[in-house]
Every structure is written in C-alpha cells, then in structure tokens.
Amino acid sequence: VQIRLPDCVSGFSYSSMHDPSSADEIYFTDANGNTLAHEVEIWRKTNADLDASLIWVKVPAFDATTKIVMHWGTAKPAERTVAAASVWSAFAGVGHMNKANVSAGILEPDA
User: What is the reported pTM?
Assistant: First the structure.
C-alpha cells in the first residue's frame, strides 16, 4: 500500500516529527501492533502538497477492515526496525511507474 504524506495520515505534520530531515523515526503497525515492513520511495520535509513523501507499506492482507497505524514523533525503537528490502521479498521484480507519458496514455518506469 502506498502512503502519501502529509495528506494520507490524519494529524501528521512534518513539524511534529522528532527529526523531519529523515523518515528514520517512522514505522507502521497493523491493528494488533505488529510491525509492518515499509520502504520510503520519496522523502520530503515540508507540508507542501506538491512535495509529498511516498512510503510503501507491506500489508499481509488488505480489505475494507484493514487498519494501518503510522507512528512518529520519537526515536524509533530498535525492535520496530524492519529492512526496507523485505517490503518486496515476495516479488520477482518491482517497477515504480511514476513518469507519465500522457500523449501515449501510459506510465513509464523512472530512470
């Protein structure tokens, strides 16, 4: 699941972070408090809509009842650290299609 900051997380503000220069303190949990692997694709440190941060979160199952909780504001406890590469561990390949080719009506992978 892709999380777009600041607009996808109610109450989030970069200024409420312990250190907004990096995403190191951010971690995600499910409804039971289990840590979810995540990877920061783009990190910005402003609340400007055009400068959104993008974070991918690995969710074991997703439906209308799925709850993902983002934590921030203090240093991340060591036991909450999960390797970013584990987000994609079940995939043979991952392509982030962010570059729009509007005239052809397609998305192209970033270079």
Answer: 0.73
